[in-house]
Each structure stands twice: as C-alpha cells, then as structure tokens.
Design brief:
By secondary structure, this protein is an alpha+beta fold. Helices cover 29% and strands 37% of the residues. It has a single domain, classed as Alpha-D-Glucose-1,6-Bisphosphate, Chain A, domain 4. A 7-stranded antiparallel sheet has the order 1-7-6-5-4-3-2. It is globular and about 40 Å long.
Amino acid sequence: MNEPLKRSVRVRCPVDHAFAVFTDRIDLWWPSSHRMLTDSRLRMEARVGGRFFERTNAGDEKKLGEVVRWEPPHRVTYTWYPGAISAPTEVDVSFTPDGDFTVVDVTHAEGDSRLGEAWNQRVVKFASAWTEVLPAFVNYLASAAKE
C-alpha cells in the first residue's frame, strides 16, 4: 500500500466545536474553488452510511463520498469520490484535545490498495487541495471566534 497523505492543524476551540464545524457546518468554510458545482451547498449526513454531497438550488447533486465512521466529537471517516479512477479514496479526520486547542489530523489514503501507481499521481493533487481546504477551516474557526 502506498503512503497516505497526512496533514495536521491546531485550532483554538474545544474538540466538540471543531468537530461540529468540520462536519455540520462544512458548507460555511469549504472553499468554493474546491466544489464541483457552481453555487452549491455541501452537506455531510451525521451517521455511518450518510452521504457527503453538494447540491445546487436547482437540485443538481454530486456525491462526494459516504461516511464510514462517525464517532463524535473525536473522529469522522468518509470515502472521497472526486478524482477517483476506479474506487474512492478515504479521508480520516481525528480531533484531539490539547489544552485550549484541538489538534485536527487528516489522513487521506488510497482506500483501495489496488490503485497502485494511480495513487502516486493523485496524491499530488490531493496534497495541493488540502493546502487550501484546511486553512479555510482554520480561518473560519478563527473569524467565528472573534464574532
């Protein structure tokens, strides 16, 4: 199996708040530049088997993934279809308390070890995407804390 992509951020808020913002309020912080549909809203259904999708006001919908682990407020794992060749990848996000902060660890992995060389090509794009998506999460939490 190829090496998974790992990213971490540290945010100044309790674990339950970081988890809720990442999952329940994902539409508020996820960058529009990283959506498949124009003027869409993102939603992650709060349960194992729940859909992670985006939908336009006109009703057009794109499946982004499916929740495979739901352990509030410490972990959510979902499949990720964008960029998929033959099978979705898997994103695992954990939330760990650290004093007045929460450490958010993201592990983006093959999901299906049969991807082989395809993962090595795709992981470069995923790495680039996470350098925009995670800072958007951090910035949203920081700006919401000032309100």
